[in-house]
# Entry
Amino acid sequence: MYTSLSSRRLFIKQMAKAAAITAAAGMFPGIIFAGEQERAAAAQGDLEWKKGPCRFCGVGCGILVGIKDGKAVAVKGDPRSKVNKGLLCVKGYHQTMCIQSKDRLTHALVKKNGTYVKTPLDEALDLVASKMKETIEKHGKDSVAMYTSGQSTIPEGYVASKLMKGAIGTNNLDCNARLCMASAVAGFLTTFGADEPMGCYEDIEHADYFITWGNNMAEMHPVLFSRMLEQKQRRGAKIVDFATRTTRSSTASDRSILFEPQTDLAVANAICYEIIENGWMNKSFVEKHCNFTKGLTNIGYGLEDKFAFKDKATPIDFEAYREFLQDYTPEKVAKYSKVSVQDIKYLAAIYGDPNKKVVSYWCMGMNQHTRGTWMNNLVYNIHLLTGKISQPGNGPFSLTGQPSACGTAREVGTFTHKLPKGVVTNEKHRRLAAKIWKVPYERIPAKPTYHTTEMFRAVDRGDIKFIWTQVTNPLVSLPKTSRYRPALEKESCFVVVSDVFPTPTSDVADVILPASWHIEKSGIYGNSERRTQHWDQMIEGPGETTPDAWMTIEVAKRMGFGDLFPYSRENHVEEIYEEYIQFHEGKKHGMAPLKALKRKSGVIWPYVEGKSTLWRFNAEYDPACDNGKAFHFYGKPDGKAVIWQRPFEPAPEKPDAEYPFWLNTGRVVEHWHTGSMTRRIPVLHQAMPNAYIELHPDDAMDYGISNGDMVKVISKRGACTMPASINERGLPTKGQVFAPFFDEELMINDVTLDAFCPISKEPDFKKCAVKIEKV
Amino acid sequence: MPIKSYLAHPCEGKKDALIASLSSIAQCELLPAENEDVVIVITDTSTEEEDQQLKSRLDNLEALKLLVLVSGFDTPKNP
# Structure
């Protein structure tokens, strides 16, 4: 039926108005817009709105997708979602516009004589299964690998883990969450013995202060930042931005404090020093609920192949810890952190004030760090020393970058060392997995194999001869791609890439599998605040596009593991989830039944007796606390959290006479990760068409560089030439440059260093030394 | 042909000034809340470029404290 453009625009305007009214109603209960509310609500028209989580970041905003004639025609924030309360960011509401991109992968492609040939999917899956099987027969089970994603759904991650660890019997499974969240995981496990934040986004409504640690939330988590700004405006909550670069978050904050890269370790210790020496420590809390421990020092940086490290925990007492902190007086730390004594004391006083509620937020700045686990431990130290934890408005909160980094990578466990519950090194955990998967216990290896960086090094060495990547684009996102691109191009490794669009990674594949996009399949994600969110398939995908979970199952069947994967194509998401949640039964991690997920816009685990647990480890809110005290850190055998003695250690590569600049890399609000989706959304691509190199104006002047001039950024590993950006989006400190990594045509990761945290194995994308040349 | 909706939060005591400023912009339709300091703004522009120019103009309004995007729709050029 014909619809005139003018009436269609009027209709859409009404919808936009209705969305705004519902969002406002979520933020201001009882808000009145007079008669407009009724008129706008009536204008919803003939669109069918289907709920789901956003495809992009780890915030996990609820979206409503408007479907008409089988097509997604509109997106709006879900006002019922407690995450975003109807708000969305620029990526969120444009997300479905990439689906119809002309270069969408709609059929399998198999490389034959150097050319990609369109191939029936069944035939391509036959080839993948036979190659995988043949490689195992010839070179052993540890010669094959899967590399998945924090964007994989829970069922996708689960069947990948079951195939690799349960069916084949190798721990050669890792995921791109290693690049973003592994330090947070290691931090939680070492301090609390249990992964993921104890609080939730509702903390935003309670906190007096938000301290952001190396975290540009205004661009990376804009909806949460909007919620923080709302609290700033409504009740005077304060935001303090502690970072190495001035960003949109800094300018919107009450105070911006800049530090020299890597010295966050020292500043965190200085804050602890101040808390103790000023008598601000919550002695009762610390005595009842904390132990003091030290780990090894001078632990290396993982720069060499086959690097191995195991930390050793040694108990210490409070006095030893206090003595250790004498090296971190504000006066001493100010000398090398470039943070003034006054600012260190200011930060400490916020945490130390018993009448102020404080939430610390961080993401990649603390995690992508060669001492990332230590940095996570140190921020926990601050909250533990003051007892500001596990209470509304008080707590440390590591934000995730990807929509299911928590749900899939961490909870399902798509890391080499993980199982859906626990770790491969733990016999009890292996036995549970073997029981639920119905495989012999002996089949699940007890030793982790390759974390991400080492996995691609193994490809380069020829140790891995088959690799299958899903929902990720490592040849743009890995550090030091200048090594790993040629590695994946080698004939010695058969490369399978499942994706929605062509990428630099699919360019080197032997087989490309056409994956379904987000709303073309049903799925389940888990966001930063332990919220599990389900969605039903909303539209049909083009051609032979197929959910990754189902392609994994089909390959497993072809390899002779059909009895372990008895799922139906129509209901595999539900069937897999029902199997998966057996791993987490109990009060400490119970997952919501599927019917609850379908009914609500997500629920938070532990889900106990029909209720989300909003603050873990606090007996007032968490039914799993059973030690009879106010707090119970039940992840540790003695119920106590650990205050870790972790020193400052320098970065592996620092600016020097030849390479005088720090290079920091990151993201921009317009683009999701490597840009494979958002660069195909015209409005986002036009808003941010290419990467750039940010310089401090003084440095630009010294080199005679003006805005837009081409600048070559050179490290010991590679070079990248990109336009200069001065006083635009962000402002690096003098002696530092910044580049976003979304642009596959301007590959800044050819320049970065593949050093990593020896405990978490997460690479540091934020610090290496470079020189610049005006081209 | 973008249509977007925003929640505009005025600086303290400047709701009326914000409404006056927004009212003078042709591409904006306003819906002020009766009992809260917030104004719904619906923008209707012909091109992405015009949309971005408008956004910059809104961001620079003196009485505006915070502009939060709620939803956006891009109508096809050919229905």
About this structure: The interface with chain A takes residues 1-7, 9, 29, 31-36, 38, 40-42, 44, 48, 52, 65-66, 68-75, 79 of chain B (CB under 8 Å). Residues 2-74 of chain B form a domain with the Alpha-Beta Plaits fold (CATH 3.30.70.920).
